[in-house]
Amino acid sequence: MTTMKTLRTFAALGLAGLMAMAAPASAEPAAKKLFSAKHEPAAGQPQSIGFYSKGCLAGAAQLPADGPAWQAMRLSRDRRYGHPVTVAFLEHLAARAKSAGIWRGLLVGDISQARGGPMAFGHSSHQVGLDADIWLQEMPADRLTAKEREDFPFRSVLKKGALTVDDRIWTSNYRDLIKLAAEEPQVQRIFVHPGIKKKLCETAGRDRAWLSKVRPYYGHHEHFHVRLFCQPGSENCKPQRAVGGGDGCSELGWWFNVALKPAPKPAKPAKPKPPLMLSGLPGQCRVVLNAPAGDPTAAMAAISAGGTGGLANSYAPAPARVPLPTPRPAR
Ligand SMILES: [Zn+2]
């Protein structure tokens, strides 16, 4: 009797059901696999969900590949999506850099995937549409072809084999651009290589308040990374701790004397960290992943509808938002 019942149950489930029953929980694909397969934003109001390195994004806008003062790079990666405020910020910063005579334009690197989330390669953050990479190279006068945007060398501003900037490459324009970005009120912090921070500390002069947002970090010598604050309307966006008030220049010693010192080779290579699973992200990210496709142009229009050029609107009261359905609580 029991056997018959079991057989009937199996028959009803079919092969897929049987496989699902047999599959251990660990067979769920890594979240990076699920999110990197999405090439359209999730419908809904713009919302960053979770933390910069553990979250996702609904209602994304897309930075156009070309604008009056920018060119987006590595188009094949399809990581030009962000919170509409991030996209507006990049357009605004590019225009300001141009009008201030710093650079004719910016080369913009990765922002986020269409629905944010972990990426198959390259970043641990950039998951909630509030992080963007800007190359440390002036935009060329010519429009690059799509192929050139794939191949254009990602050039370091450091001296070869050293931890300090190459003064044959570095000019005050680099400093002025990073300062311009840091002084934007939407910017929470900026990551640069410690060698760049050192140069900024040495050349900032008396106006140093902006330096507090410029944080030394590994890498980041071919580009700098701008992180915006959680935006109004994103109740589930987890903010990062505020940067301190000082210029951070006296902390650089630790970077050069400890952090960047070549580490002795470990006897056994470290075990790689297991990848983030969907169940490890905020529950709403499952809803974002499965949501119908939204219109990235509409997402952008919603924030510029006020007619003041978009950016100012991010401080206006958030529009009444359509809540995302609550996901089933994870077991
Ligand atoms: Zn970055």
Q: What is the fold's blueprint, element by element?
A:
Elements: H1 2-22, H2 31-36, E1 47-51, E2 54-58, E3 61-62, E4 66-67, E5 70-72, E6 81-82, H3 84-99, E7 106-108, E8 131-138, H4 146-151, H5 172-182, E9 187-192, H6 194-203, E10 214-216, E11 223-228, H7 252-259, H8 284-290, H9 296-304
Parallel strand pairs: 5-7, 9-10
Antiparallel strand pairs: 1-2, 3-6, 4-5, 7-8, 8-11, 9-11
The structure holds zinc ion (ZN).
| Portion in strands | 5-15%
Fraction of residues in helices? 25-40%
CATH topology descriptor: Muramoyl-pentapeptide Carboxypeptidase, domain 2
Oligomer: single chain
Q: What coarse outline follows from CA principal-axis ratios?
A: globular
Number of helices: 9
Major sheet size, sense and barrel closure:
7 strands, mixed
- Write down the Rg: 23 Å
Compute the number of structural domains. 1
The level-1 CATH class:
Alpha Beta
Bound molecules: zinc ion
Number of strands: 11
**Judging by the overall fold, what is the CATH architecture?**
2-Layer Sandwich
Structural class: alpha+beta
Strand order of the largest sheet: 4-5-7-8-11-9-10
Compressed to H and E, one letter per element, the order equals HHEEEEEEHEEHHEHEEHHH
The mean pLDDT is: 87
